[in-house]
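Hi L.,

As promised, V-type proton ATPase subunit a:
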Amino acid sequence: MGSIFRSEEMALCQLFLSSEAAYNCVSEIGEVGLVQFRDLNPDVNAFQRKFVHEVRRCDEMDRKLRYLEKEILKDKLQIIDTGENPAAPQPREMIDLEATFEKLENELREVNANAETLKKNSLELTELKHVLATTQLFFQEEAQTSLTIEQRDSEPNSSITQNLLPAEEGKGPVQLGFVCGVTNRERMPMFERMLWRVCRGNVFVRQSEVQQPLEDPVTGEEVFKTVFIIFFQGEQLKTKVKKICEGCRTTMYPCPESAQERKEMGQGVEGRLADLRTVLNQTTDHRHRVLAAAAKHLRTWFIKVKKMKAIYHTLNMLNLDVTNKCLIAECWIPTVDMGSIRAALRKGTERAGSSVEPIINQMHTHMMPPTFHRTNKFTIGFQNLIDSYGIATYREVNPALYTTTTFPFLFAVMFGDAGHAMIMLLFSGWMVLRERQLIASKMSGEIWNIFFSGRYILLLMSLFSIYTGIIYNDIFSKSFNIFGSSWHIGDNANATEANLQAWGELTLDPYYRDLYSGKPYPVGFDPIWQIAVNKIAFQNSYKMKISIIIGVFHMIFGIMVSLANHLFFRRYWNIVCEFIPQMVFLVSLFGYLCFMVFFKWVSFGCGEEFDAQHNSDCAPSVLIYFINMVLLKKDEPPGDCDAFMYNGQFIVQLILLVIALLCVPILLIPKPFIARYQYYQRMRRQAVSQQLLETQGAGTSVPVHEEEFEFSEVFIEQAIHTIEFVLGCVSHTASYLRLWALSLAHGQLSEVLWNMVMKIGLQQGSTVGCVMLYVIFSFWAVLTVSILVLMEGLSAFLHTLRLHWVEFQSKFYKGEGYAFAPLTFKHIINGDDEETG
């Protein structure tokens, strides 16, 4: 409880560790996770530190493990997580780990290289098989064609595989050469255009697409190929065609001219392909066995290597003594954990077999210690909200304790719908009840991690929203009549469906006691307000006033928390010059505003129990009274009404205004002069101490460095703080009106969605209407979850966050500290990617 209220007390300690036991001691400290080491070699280059060679070796092992992990995931194997937390290996075990990883990497690279070669050969033979099959088919068609030139000319739709050139008189048919090969399907149009332009149309291209995709041996992706045959005449065209094929990155294959030779070559290709498939399957099986064996130990190896790297990284932050037999460290340790740290150091010394006990000395320092709040799974979400604004200054009051209550409550005031809150409750309750299984499943995704880490915040927000939804009597924009309405229409007639249809509109006025019983609804709003014309006017008046009251009390509580800081840090002058005038100023003006709201609620109303001066016609406007109070004005009352709410109100308001104005110079003037006086007192004490040391011959002490006091800067800073507080009281009070505005917006959006969507389905009476109701309900449910729960919930969350960061925390929270970052192996064990050390 003390840690969540105020950060842990920290101590700067000096550790003396023997060289042979330093590794094991740091390892045990990392398992405890409660020591933050300071870098004692800030000016030394990272490549010149003592253990840089070991860090590089760890980096190399980590690289090899990541390579193994990539190959395992490529084979779609599962990396076994036994939940084991192996201890950091001894330095001498590093050689064995390096040898193991080196052997695995070399074996895997060799297997991958062989597999890639086999796949390339298989791809070439497969392409050659398709080339032979395509050319065989082409030449068979040509052999079966016996059309003459005249027949071909007279039949324009005849086969394009006929002789390209006619036979000259006294000579046989013209002999054409050909080249065949394979190229990617998407390159074929470009390839054909190139051939046409360079060869001036003197070549004939025949192509055939390979239907089945082929696997690229390098990338493993599927590619589609096309077989082509190019016919030409003459050696000159042959040279051009081959150069174009090479330039367009096609693969050319030899193809015999005779059918018998093509058949024999095809049979040989089929035999070689079968042999290659057998060898490739054996290679793949061997690779799979190697990766499956590595997957069983991969997580353990990762933990060991990362622990070693974190330890050596920490050892690089330590100093060596002159004898090189001892390592000196400076670290921050929570004072309550000194015993566990000493036990960890003793355990590390025993593991190393060293006879030299480690020494731990607590040092006196003027440095600001880090801020450390102990959290659990419930409070860590709220603590993260506060830390996002700024890390608390060392030992100042932590707002996270109060945020656990105020944050979900302010959210609920804006998100006051019990139905929507029930949806949030089901989701957050599911995450809370199944948190162990969800953590073990290690679900990824940034959005999911945000929701899961804030599951307890969502749970409280939903519970508080259900409460405010009951107060507003708002469940999916509808109200429940549980206790019976206090309003009666006509001669003791209830607002039945028939009456409502007859009246059309209903305006509620509590002045008429034949309509209102005089006894309010037991819990929350009366359900009959749901159908009243003046519903928004009534609810706006209530929610606006309650927002101001909540805001003022929230700010008053923030100022009261600052008193705890002043008392703890012994800043007693701040109590007189800051806390008291701030409290008096806020209570005199805005506390009095809340008093007038309560006084109006109690003293003015409708009915026989209120006289003419206190009935609803004479009910004053609190805002107008507050403005007149500041401007020292008096308004003429209407009719027989009193000018003020109570006797002596003008005198009371004048006194409160004068007191509030007197608080401003008290906030502005005394603190700079007191700060200057305290500075001169410290300088005088240091000078006296220095003279005493010189007189006694004890040498000179190292003076404490303190910045020179600039009175003008301090005075300007105090003036800024004063103006900020005075103006902030006004703006922050108005800022809390967002509670009313978002509550109104949420309620109206919910009502519009119901009337525009769900109401249409409920009004259908036919069989088709029943079917439509399912569709309309689905549409309404999707819009409800996406807009009213998610988007409106996010909007209310952000506004609540602003009210805490600015309006509440500005009254007492500095947030000028830095987080406690201990050496811990927790992130390594959990498999996070964060660097430790």
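The chain has 26 helices and eleven strands.

Thanks again for sending the construct details.

K.
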